[in-house]
Amino acid sequence: MGGCAVAALFAACSGPPPSGPAPVGPLAAAESLYLDLRDLRDRIDVAASAGRPAARDGRPVAGLARDHDQLRATLVTRFGAIDSSALGRGDARAFGIMRAALGRDLVTLAPLTSAGTSSTRRRPDCDYDPAAIAPVSNALDSLRGRIYACYGWAQGHVVVGPDTMDRLSVLGALGRIEDPSERRRLFLSLEPVWRSVNADNGPRSPYRRLIALEVGGRRGGEPPGARQARRSGVPPDSLERWLVAILETWRDVNPDSLIEPWDWYFRTGRLGRALGGRISRERLTALNADVYRALGADLGALNVRYDLEPREGKTPVAFCTFGARPRRRGPGWTPGEPSVFATYRGGGLDNLAELLHETGHAVHIAAIRTRPAFTDWPDSDPFTEAVADFVALDVAEP
């Protein structure tokens, strides 16, 4: 079944446009502007993630931000002139999604300068009391941003003796180092990374404060996990049983003995030790492209972009996003500009698996074929992660 799903996804990248009635009149014009606004925001976000003061075509981010806000204001006016009560079911859903996005994902931007997208970054102030952030009006977003900034700095500046490493390099080394005492020393060097999120796991824990703010903000409403399960057709009360079953199976198939985490990384790193030396940093992208080409997806034709080099201030996690959105051009479609960000100082099997996963997201993005209002994806939900993992899991179980 998984292979069929992947084949269908790849076929969508070159298949015919979907059938169905297209919007007409004022809604159609507004929806076209909405896709233009999405594209502008994507270009700004990708430039910021890449640490560039300009978009890929050379346009300064500050100018794109001004265009974004002007187009947003125009779109607000266009939306105000649309009588939503006269819309059919599909159009009403599209209209509601676009209006919600204006207030959530496409808010007015603060003035941006080239300094705002610089790849250099000062060390954030991480000696703070999370309780002091709680009373501010946007406490949840402020605390989340502070935690992420401190985590990003800590994971990129792991001090190991006279050296400074990053989190992924440390975890990769744990699978290769033979000496248990050296593995332990290396693993414990990650303590500042853990503390950047959870401190001492006490009342001053930023993470505990974040969870309290998130729960309080729901005001008794349904948790995000339960809501996501319901949208996927899964009864929310079944999630706990599934998780318990997974943990029980994990326990049953593993040795009935305690193992230190640094030794666990070494035990599970056997495949990486056997094959990782054959996968250099230079071969990562070539192998990644070869795998997807064999499955029917030409990454060049799909316009997939990569930013994989280490850089100070770069986001600490791998991700894929829109650099531009797929859209109809005459009788066909453009694939947009799926953009993958990750940091690889070396090659190895683990990095290849992660790159295959993120490229799975890129192919998913390139395969979107729908009206402008729906040209998005449910980032990080079980469906999108499963699509990306179809190919990545073949690294361990071909």
Description:
Among the domains are: 85 residues; 149 residues, no CATH class. The chain is 54% helix and 6% strand. It has 17 helices and 7 strands. A hairpin with a 2-residue loop joins strand 1 and strand 2. Helix 2 runs antiparallel to helix 3. About 2% of the residues have low confidence.
Given as residue ranges, the uncertain stretches (5+ residues, pLDDT < 50) are: 114-119
**Amount of helix:** 40-55%
The portion of residues forming beta strands comes to 5-15%
Tell me the series of helices and strands, N- to C-terminal.
HHHHHHEEHHHHHHHHHEEEEEHH
- Tell me the major beta sheet: 3 strands, mixed
How far apart the termini lie comes to 15 Å
Shape: globular
Order of strands in the sheet with most strands? 3-7-4
Radius of gyration: 23 Å
